[in-house]
Amino acid sequence: MQFHVPPFLKHLTNGVTEVEVTGATLGECLDAFVKRFPLAETLLFDERGRLHGYIEISVNGISAFPEELTRPVREGDTISMMYLMAGG
After folding, report:
1. Is the CB of residue 63 less than 8 Å from the CB of residue 80?
2. DSSP letter string over the chain?
């Protein structure tokens, strides 16, 4: 799967914007990304291993919410991520 590296993680990948990851689920793909770029772990996951609530993940442009980490993925899928913004 192609993982589009979001701007908030590009400093960890030396500016690389796409990384090939493998896994049967989004969680496995994110684990593969973190294994390659360990400093990404605290930016993506809380202390319980759950995806931070302010991160939105999509597969082929469709939101993976609410079960992001268990969502199945297939070869050829594209994974994208962004921070959710809120304010008033």
Report:
1. no
2. -EEE--GGGGGGTTT--EEE---SBHHHHHHHHHHHSGGGHHHHB-TTSPBPTTEEEEETTEE--SSGGG-B--TT-EEEEEE-----
Model confidence pLDDT, tens digit, residues 4-38: 999 999 999 999 999 999 999 999 999 999 999 99
- Does the pTM of the predicted model rise above 0.90? yes
Taking the CB of residue 14, how many other CB atoms lie within 10 A of it?
A: 7
Task: List the domain boundaries for the chain.
Answer: 2-83
Report the CATH number of the 2-83 domain: 3.10.20.30
Please tell me the distance from the alpha carbon of residue 45 to that of residue 21, in angstroms, as a whole number: 17
Per-residue confidence (pLDDT) for residue 6, from 0 to 100: 95
Residues written for the chain:
88
